[in-house]
């Protein structure tokens, strides 16, 4: 039997009718019989296109408020019948079941409804039953049937109809079937996650319908893609296409900047902050952030939580950087920043991070709760004889926010709400501290009365001793080491202040 098939009869049942008019008119011009249901029937009929009601075939009306329309043997028999199976042919003849060669469906918008309302009855009614069943049946029988599972495939079908005049190959039908199972699996995942929002069932389900093919992965010889609706996160105003590494940096940058309420500017390199400062004026925040490490800032990712003005843009424009992200830009500021053709300029949109984080490794996926704990002054327990000075309390909170988003082992040195230096990604906490001190000294940063934040406890007193000798007088750390008392005793001996938070912030 030929692998090519000619479409003679189509079933159309769609929620999204935009674009369906061109398709049904093309079907009509090809003398393809059209069957339809409910609102779709009314719409096709209003176009002046000949269409038959499903009810006229099944001899059953739409019942239960529209919950049951197509769920009938005369519909599913026509879809699932194998054209080369003699027994199937006999059943079609015996029960007067018409063959259906094309199924066009667009499901009820379940995910959109969940985003728009908390009315559970409205959400439940948007769980499509007949539509999803039609998609799965037609996809299963792809050897004989073409299935269009969503409005996203309308244009692909129209191109096929115009190119082949109603004929399809096995390759065409298999491609549509693959799209169909992608749609159905995504739909079922969304429904499961809605019902399992409290994670009572220990199952991991993630499905993303949108994908962006990237220039490459971490390196040019690796292919890369982003699955997710990245346009919900930011709007690109200028510049070249975003890369895999850009997205990694942007994720870190957004997570970091969201910790700060006052005007803050951050510069990141390889997902770590190399400069960050909070100031009443944006230009001052920028200058203080850049002063933290003007060398690493070259080619970095810039982010702020404040609208960028012309004065700040003119200073920023003096630096070579790859990406800038802000809530918005003054018109004059944007004009200045657009002077470099490849510079990526992004406007951050309002969106919420997922509550869970995923990481693929070995032969599976690691899943964890997002670290949403941010310590305040009220969460700090002073464990030394000396308490931090009033201005140091703010600096300790400031430094702790940065170290939370720095690669472990991590140490952050700060003063006057400015990142002086950090040591990140080291194999020992002492190495991280030495790296931070050396870096601060290389840029002539004054560490006298600065504070130190550590992402995890100190197993020995050596770190606080090194910090003290560098001029640091206050420390924030989680605590929890069996030798905490050694660090506490050293701090007491040297009149240093140390606070515990009780929360470790490893970031591997």
Characterization of the model:
It is a single chain. With 508 residues, this protein is α/β, with parallel strands linked by helices. The protein folds into 3 domains: 5-195, 3-Layer(aba) Sandwich (Rossmann fold); 232-348, Cytidine Deaminase, domain 2; 377-500, Cytidine Deaminase, domain 2 (3-Layer(aba) Sandwich), CATH 3.40.140. The protein is built from 18 helices and 23 strands. The strands form 6 sheets. Strands 10-15-14-13-11-12 form a 6-stranded mixed beta sheet, sandwiched between helices. Strand 2 (9-14), helix 1 (20-29) and strand 3 (33-36) form a beta-alpha-beta unit. Helix 8 packs antiparallel against helix 10 (170-195), helix 13 packs parallel to helix 14 and helix 16 (429-442) packs parallel to helix 17. It is elongated and about 95 Å long. It starts with a strand and ends in an 8-residue tail after the last strand. The model has no long low-confidence stretch (mean pLDDT 93).
């Amino acid at each position: 039997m030929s692998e090519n098939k000619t479409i003679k009869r189509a079933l159309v049942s769609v929620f999204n009718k935009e674009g369906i008019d061109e398709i049904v008119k093309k079907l009509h011009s090809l003398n393809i019989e059209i069957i339809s249901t409910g609102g779709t029937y009314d719409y096709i009929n209003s176009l002046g296109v000949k269409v038959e009601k499903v009810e006229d075939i099944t001899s059953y009306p739409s019942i239960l408020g529209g919950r049951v329309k197509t769920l009938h043997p005369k519909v599913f028999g026509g879809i699932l019948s194998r054209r080369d199976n003699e027994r199937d042919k006999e059943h079609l003849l015996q029960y007067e079941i018409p063959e259906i060669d094309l199924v066009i469906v667009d499901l009820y918008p379940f995910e959109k409804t969940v985003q728009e309302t908390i009315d559970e009855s409205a959400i439940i009614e948007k769980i499509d039953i007949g539509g999803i069943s039609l998609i799965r049946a037609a996809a299963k029988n792809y050897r004989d049937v073409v299935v269009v599972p969503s409005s996203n495939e309308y244009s692909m079908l129209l191109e096929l109809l115009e190119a082949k005049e109603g004929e399809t190959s096995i390759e065409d039908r298999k491609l549509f079937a693959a799209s169909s199972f992608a749609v159905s699996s995504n739909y079922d995942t969304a429904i499961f996650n809605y019902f399992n929002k409290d994670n009572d069932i220990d199952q991991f389900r993630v499905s993303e319908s949108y994908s962006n093919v990237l220039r490459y992965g971490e390196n040019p010889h690796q292919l890369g893609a982003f699955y997710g609706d990245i346009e919900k996160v930011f709007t690109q105003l200028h510049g070249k296409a975003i890369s895999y590494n850009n997205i990694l940096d942007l994720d870190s940058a957004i997570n970091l900047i969201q910790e700060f309420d006052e005007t803050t500017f951050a510069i990141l390199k390889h997902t770590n902050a190399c400069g960050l400062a909070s100031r009443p004026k944006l230009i001052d925040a920028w200058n203080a952030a850049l002063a933290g490490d003007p060398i690493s800032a070259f080619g970095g990712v810039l982010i702020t939580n404040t609208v960028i003005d012309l004065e700040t843009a003119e200073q920023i424009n003096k630096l070579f950087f790859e990406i800038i992200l802000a809530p918005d830009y003054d018109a004059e500021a944007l004009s200045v920043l657009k002077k470099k053709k490849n510079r990526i300029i992004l406007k951050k949109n309002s969106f919420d991070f997922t509550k869970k984080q995923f990481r693929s490794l070995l032969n599976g996926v690691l899943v964890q709760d997002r670290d949403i704990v941010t310590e305040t002054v009220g969460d700090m327990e002073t464990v030394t004889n000396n308490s931090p000075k009033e201005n140091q309390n703010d600096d300790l909170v400031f430094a702790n926010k940065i170290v939370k988003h720095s690669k472990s082992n991590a140490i952050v040195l700060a003063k006057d709400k400015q990142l002086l230096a950090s040591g990140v990604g080291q194999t020992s906490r002492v190495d991280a501290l030495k790296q931070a001190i050396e870096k601060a000294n290389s840029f002539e940063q004054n560490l006298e009365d600065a504070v130190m934040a550590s992402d995890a406890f100190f197993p020995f007193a050596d770190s606080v001793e090194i910090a003290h000798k560098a001029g640091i007088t206050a420390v924030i750390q989680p605590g929890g080491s069996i030798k905490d008392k050694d660090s506490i005793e050293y701090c007491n001996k040297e009149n240093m202040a140390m606070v515990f938070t009780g929360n470790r912030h490893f970031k591997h």
